[in-house]
Amino acid sequence: MHDGLAGRGHLREHEEVEIILDAIAARRQKMGRTLTILDFGCGNATGVGQFVIPGAGRYVGVDMHDASLAYARQNYGAPNAEFVSSVPTAVTFDVIIYSDLLEHVHDPLGIIRGHLPQLAQDGIMIGSVPNGYGPCEIEKYLDYYLGIYKILRAVKTVRALSRRQAAERAAADPLQPRVRPRHLVHHAKPPPHGRGCRA
Hints:
By secondary structure, this protein is of the alpha/beta class.
């Protein structure tokens, strides 16, 4: 097992990183030198990049999300690593990684073909596509069928309206006592177990 992977919570992601690191280690051993690696769609580098950077001669993480790139630079920046929004054109890569990315692009084959001219003669491409059972897929399923984010946005809106109305009432009549809902009142002594709760 590779150092740093023991704490990863999700088995599929753990296995994916192991496969990628093993492929890179085998390629490095075969070539007898450090490798130049492109991690296309690196995100914030928490998924794969952080584990690839220490063994890379040069690591280039590419993503279109500026906040993710900023996070990656701040948390995983290293002398051999760069995080950019487009693939540098004058670089030949020994390894190109597509980790859980190709399912998000309109033309995955076009992306791969576009990178082929920058792949070294004996270079490799490593890709993974989720199987539909990871945390991200479950979250999307719940949102699609249950509208979980719509519900959360509605709750947030109701809370904000409630706070605004309370502030308006307090401003209109500063002498009016503030009343808190019963379930928000702090009791000096909690009610005995099984009492004080109504369904």
